[in-house]
Amino acid sequence: MRTLALAALLVVSPGLFAPMRAAAVESRLVHDGDADFRVATVDLRADALGLYWRDANGTAYGSIERLRQGGAAEGETLAFATNAGIYDREFRPLGLTIAEGTTLRALNTTKPRGATGNFGMQPNGVFYVDRQGHAGVVRTDAWRSLAIDARLATQSGPMLLVDGEINPAFVESSDSRKWRSGVCAPAPDKAVFAVSIAPVTFHAFARLFRDRLGCRDALFLDGTLSQIYTAADGYSGAPDMMVRPYAGMLAVFAGTPAAR
Q1: Which of 87-96, 110-119, 192-201 has the least mean pLDDT?
Q2: φ and ψ at 131, to 5 degrees?
Q3: How far apart are CA 156 and CA 66, in angstroms?
Q4: CA distance 58 to 259
């Protein structure tokens, strides 16, 4: 779905795409502790994961449904979508945003003092897929030194897991429960997304990625407004009345070959 890619339209050579069709995104319900989670796994060897914000006219999609409709108008079927990282009050991504190799928003290395929102909780991080189709999650403070040649990236925060350890800022006994979404890459060719079906603590959400999803590094994407859509299961996560316009979405369209 090239013409819907986030950014000014880019000319993409057909030679950049492998001769295969996108496989169905794996969607499953996972129970952990006292909570249920929708988990979607994207096989990057076959599924072309894209990052979408604005259409060809520069208008923000704003919602998964509008992105789906935009794809349908071009003969594409939306297989999977979820919100990307946290955004500001002007509905612009708050941190690094890369689509089709073009940087649309710069890395945000600000570390606020005192009380702050989730993005400012340390460490925050970046989810990316590079030009070789390999995915990962890294800390923001390591991004520049790694010199990753990213095809897509979204910055958010906080990190849920760092090198297999739950973020020490999370309190297991906390009474702060929200709908939460996040992402990890348990292998370079897999991106795993999860959203809670009901409100959960940060600690419980991080434990899911560590103990059930096989991740060592995982990133929180967003909270109360988060949803995952799959063609097989529809919408999961926050109820519709809680959802607000998104400033970016990560999505797979069926029949779109994986980039190489």
Answers
A1: 110-119
A2: -70, -15
A3: 23
A4: 24
Residue 18 in domain? no
Q: Which runs of E-coded beta strand occur in 44-157? A: 47-52, 77-83, 97-99, 102-105, 125-130, 135-139, 150-156
Task: Count the domains in the chain.
Answer: 1
Strand 159-162 to strand 218-222: parallel, antiparallel, or no bridges (unpaired)?
A: antiparallel
Q: In this structure, is residue 233 part of a structural domain?
A: no
Distance CA 145, CA 125 (A): 14
Q: Which residue range is the domain that position 80 belongs to?
A: 27-110+118-157+245-260
The CA-atom distances, in angstroms, between 96 and each of 51, 87, 109, 126, 140 are 12, 10, 10, 8, 9
Q: Is the pLDDT of residue 197 over 80?
A: yes
Q: Is pLDDT at 190 greater than 80 in this prediction?
A: yes
Give how far the C-alpha of residue 24 lies from the chain's centroid of Cα atoms, to the nearest Å: 18
Query: Residue 52's CB: how many other CB atoms inside 10 A?
Result: 27
Pairing relationship of beta strands 159-162 and 150-156 according to DSSP bridges: unpaired
Let me know if residue 148 belongs to a domain: yes
The rounded percent of the chain whose pLDDT value lies above 70 is 85
Identify the pLDDT of residue 183: 98
* Mean pLDDT (whole number) for 49-54: 95
Flag whether 133 is in a domain.
yes
The gap between the terminal CA atoms of the chain, to the nearest Å, is 15
Average pLDDT over residues 202-206: 97
Place of tokens 């760092």: 162
